[in-house]
UniProtKB/TrEMBL annotation:
Xref: Pfam families: FecCD
Taxonomic lineage of the native organism: Bacteria, Pseudomonadati, Pseudomonadota, Alphaproteobacteria, Rhodospirillales
UniProt KW Transit peptide keyword: no
UniProt family annotation: Belongs to the binding-protein-dependent transport system permease family. FecCD subfamily.
Cell compartment(s), UniProt: Cell membrane
Membrane topology designation: Multi-pass membrane protein
Protein name, per record: Iron ABC transporter
Domain of life: Bacteria
Species annotation: Thalassospira permensis NBRC 106175
InterPro entries: ABC_BtuC-like (IPR037294), ABC_transptr_permease_BtuC (IPR000522)
Keywords: Cell membrane, Membrane, Transmembrane, Transmembrane helix, Transport
Amino acid sequence: MTTTLRNHPAYLGTIPTTIFIAALLLSALSLYIETGSLNPAIVFDLASASGTQSLLLTHGWVPRFLISFVAGAGLATAGALFQHTLKNPLASPSTLGLAGGAKLFLTLATLYVPGALVIGHDMIALLGALVVGMLVFALARRSGFSPLVVILTGMIIGLYCGAVTTALAIIHHEWLKSLFIWGSGDLTQDGWYILNPLTIKVAIGMVVAIMLARPLEMLNLNDHQATALGASPARLRMLCLLIGCWLTAVTVAAVGIVGFVGLAGPAITRMIGIRRLRHKLIASALFGALLLCAADQGVQVLSGHLGTLVPAGALTGVFGGPLLIILIRQLRANSPPSRSTTAIPTKDRSLRQSRMILRTCVLLAIAGAIFIGRDVNGFWQLQWTNDLQTVWPWRGPRILGAIAAGTMLAIAGTVLQRMTANPMASPESLGVSAGAAIGMIAIIFAIDAPSVWLLISGAAIGAFVTLVAIFVLTRKSGYAPERILIAGIAIGALFDGFIAFLMAGGDPRAARLLAWSSGSTYGLGFDRATILAIVAVTALPILPALARWLNLFPLGPITTKSMGVDLSVSRGSMLLFAAILTAAATLLVGPLSFAGLIAPHLARLAGFRHALSHSIGAAFIGAALMVSADWLGRMLFFPWEIPAGLMAAIIAGPVLVWLLMRIGQTSS
């Protein structure tokens, strides 16, 4: 049998060799920048001397170098355990949302139960990771641990935890500044007091995992086979979850969230052909340590050129996206069947009632946002005539902009869900919003004071390129829904990491991205709001022209083509349409709101089945959601404001989990 180059031992050996050489060279360069020499005698004399430079070396560079190995090994071991338990190559502390849960619980304890911190940050973080892990596992069990549902649930819950944490940071920013410097994944050290206990805790978790590797091998069998051999699959999974959560919690509590190291270490181990769990755990820990060391040393070198400190977590996010793209082919097609979005007969009377209820809810949401507010002392009041006239120049544009953004995201989400026959497709989940963000950032950095139309154009190009890339990556799989979704998540992770890297770089132009990324409508004027409203209104007459395509695409490409539809033209037209709407909406509410994901589902549950009525119903729901989110963000925590996009994500999070539970029940 002929051995392909990709599977040749010499080819596979280049992967660990390259990682080792990169870590070695970057560490040497970083040490040279720190000490001015690579001569061992000079470095040793400097470490033994007294003075500022000696302290920077012995209490700064050396513990930071060592903690990158310890943290990387802990995260990679946790990732290997999760992947083994779920039989899912995409499972890791970051993709399962465990790191986000640990960070949220630490934030809540710091703010509201500071006395609980006496039991240790590790225990608080462990509790958060366990709560999220239990929720993800419970939902995954309903779907038979489908890779699609597991990763979607973990990422949605992780994003939800991040949204709540960010909202708390906005309200209590004076108490959480240091917490969020830590939370970005910064390995900067000023002594050995973090490294020493972390090393002991990670070592305990790794030793326990390696000692239990043999019984945990039973999880490679199906549940019936494992039970016949006297094992309890449920207990073994729980044991894996506990060990993985412990390693995640102690690492997050020490150095913050460092994304994708827990994904990369086991992935490299699998690529070079290691199969036994004990060997996989050891190799994953080694590769995770080398990867985080290389990333952190690279960050130190880069920070010297940029003149600012860049967190290691920002750089690992940039590398995580391409890794997810590579792993797409390894994802098993075990996702539940897509829920049909074709026309289903619905009683006219029921549909009329749904439309009436929907219109009433939208009108009530808009009326409440217009007339209900708070005075300068924080008391609730109905604001008429003079009071309303006073606040209208600020309130009016925000309401108009929220309506336009919700409408555009909902229509774009409906188009993407019907075109891909994927119930979980949306501008947010497919990374289209992140692509639009990159396009907008490129315009901001290339042109001084760009106009709104120029920003929309740049964002539209970024969104369109993202959609094209997703379809190119999934073409060989026949545009399978789970592959489309994971490709979108991968590209979104790449863009999000790049955005975080730019924000951490200290460029003044990147500072404005912080408020925008959370979806704030603060400072919106009637000029920009009117432009967004024009784009939203223009989209409505286009929907009837797309209705036939949107009704046929859920039936599959073969049926659609047999009905005389040119797939390239129709798919390209709908991609461009969704890209423009996403770009305009992202310009206002940021890349995360989930309005484009839940509005089509709620419209379908309300009885809107035909493509045209489905799109219009989703538009109404999206508008009501964003208006309500903007109003709640302004009024709920007065005088502080929660950005509309962030508040929409907080509102939509429980709804998304409920939708995933429905998918799990359907598949089971």
